[in-house]
Amino acid sequence: MDEALLLNLLVDMYKQKVIFRDLGLMGYKTAWDYQEQLLQENVKKKSLVFTQESGTTNDQLPTPDSELQTQHYLLFVEHPPVYTLGKSGNIENVLINEEIRLAKGIEFFRTNRGGDITFHGPQQIVGYPILDLEKFETDIGKYLRNIEEVTILTLAEYGITAGRSPGETGVWIDADQPGKERKICAIGVRSSRWITMHGFALNVNTDLSHFNFIVPCGIQNKQVTSIEKESGHKVDFDEVKEKMKRNFEKVFNVELAIGNEQ
To answer: Which residues, in sequence order, are CB contacts of 101 under 8 Å at separation 6+?
Structure first.
């Protein structure tokens, strides 16, 4: 067998499998609860493994290795209009009062993710990776850079040159040009026992006017943009999702498998 082909086969054999689920349009709290469910299932499996390795098992604990394996997930979802505030965020970065917000039909949630205030809405790809980083690298910084890289590669396929802004998580355009910096993808995550949740929000054909009523990510004097705005026309939303999926596989060296159960 050709040596290069054999190497590729070996690499594929050891790729982590990630169950992909497209949740469609779903309320923020419902999706948050679902993430928590998947995270806690994985944390429980890790606790059982730890208990068994400590020699304190009992007959009620599962013993087959297959029952103790953590499972990776990648969830895509669109949310109805909602503002979410990270655990260290500043409520003063919400620039409208509750009455006006409700009149505009925008929900609000305080969350347990990192980061500050952001907006989620239709035609924005929100991605929630539920990954066990102990099967990758136990480095949250590297994990965040990988999410950014997935987005940067996807944007390049639309002729959009994007990158990073030193000291600021997320994906930016013209980050090195004062006064022209604009964010196209926000990222905020949480992890428990190296299991991740929450994730990223990429503006595709998103209505950016909702960002006018917050200080996005708590960063003053920097703009927010979208693929539509940068390209000058609406793009195929499902096509962008497919490109994000393929680049996620590439950057994280995983294989996505469709999963319909929720």
So the answer is: 83, 94, 108, 213
3-state secondary structure of 97: coil
Q: Which SS3 state, helix, strand or coil, does residue 186 take?
A: strand
Q: Within 10 A of 107 (CB to CB), how many other CB atoms are there? A: 16
CA-CA distance, 247 to 53, in Å (whole number)? 36
Find the helix or strand (DSSP H, E) in which 208 lies: none
| DSSP structure string for 108-169 | EEE-SSSS-EEEE-TTEEEEEEE-BGGGS-S-HHHHHHHHHHHHHHHHHTTT---EEETTEE
Q: What is the CA radius of gyration of the chain?
A: 20
CA–chain centroid gap for 108, Å, is: 19
Report whether 104 contacts 81 (CB < 8 A): yes
Q: Are 121 and 206 in contact (CB under 8 A)?
A: yes
Q: What is the predicted pLDDT for the residue at 220?
A: 83
pTM of the model: 0.88
pLDDT in tens, 131-149: 999 999 999 999 999 999 9
What are 62's two structure tokens?
């599962």
Any bridge partners for residue 196, and if so which?
191
- Residue 51 reports pLDDT greater than 70: no
Structure letter (DSSP) for residue 204? S
Using CB atoms within 10 Å of the CB of residue 119, give its burial: 0 to 12 exposed, 13 to 18 middle, 19+ buried: buried
Residues designated as active site = 217
